[in-house]
Design a protein that fits this description.
disordered N terminus
Length: about 180
């Protein structure tokens, strides 16, 4: 793992669900009343049950929860077709930000590809959730709120800034080399 990317290999091991209590006034303007760190997941009505069950289902799908089966983990971990040789990561976040489409593609390491593929797959598992960050329209706006830039955030931000999807380009390249 790259020293600037301090994510664990199993980033879905831990997550939190927050409960937001919102009040709508007569003009349908929302007012945030409180945020609950440990929201009540019990249902008090059929509508409440439908909302909470859908939210929990979407959450577990979003994180890509997979059942653990002894001995299968290594096969799952290596099931994606990636280049055998791991390329060097750019030396710094600043160097990563300077790369163009072609140099970015050339500099991607297996770890970088894994982050990008996971981010892309997560988007398609989002269910009823709406992605706020990272999102091509808002990534620059929200990035300024992080105390320190993170390598993986800069990587995803750079990936989203290109007009072409690098993963599609890379997948086409792989599929023609496999056949």
């Amino acid at each position: 793992m790259h020293p600037l990317n301090r994510q664990s290999d199993h980033r879905t091991n831990c997550f939190e669900i927050y409960g937001f209590d919102v009040l709508l006034d007569a003009n349908l303007k929302p007012w945030l009343m409180e945020v609950n760190v440990s929201p009540d997941l019990m249902s008090s009505s059929p509508l409440d049950k439908k909302i909470k069950v859908s939210m929990l289902s979407d959450t577990l799908n979003l994180i890509g929860l997979q059942p653990y089966k002894k001995g299968i983990f290594e096969k799952l971990k290596h099931s994606r077709v990636l280049p055998q040789k791991d390329k060097k990561l750019p030396k710094s976040i600043e160097n990563l930000q300077k790369l163009d489409f072609n140099s970015f593609l050339a500099e991607l390491s297996n770890d970088d590809l894994e982050i990008l593929f996971e981010t892309d797959e997560e988007y398609y598992r989002k269910g009823s959730f709406e992605r706020i960050f990272p999102n091509p329209d808002t990534v620059h706006h929200y990035s300024k709120f992080f105390q320190f830039p993170r390598y993986s955030n800069i990587l995803v931000e750079k990936w989203m800034s290109f007009p072409k999807n690098i993963l599609e380009h890379f997948s086409k390249k792989l599929s023609t080399s496999i056949v």
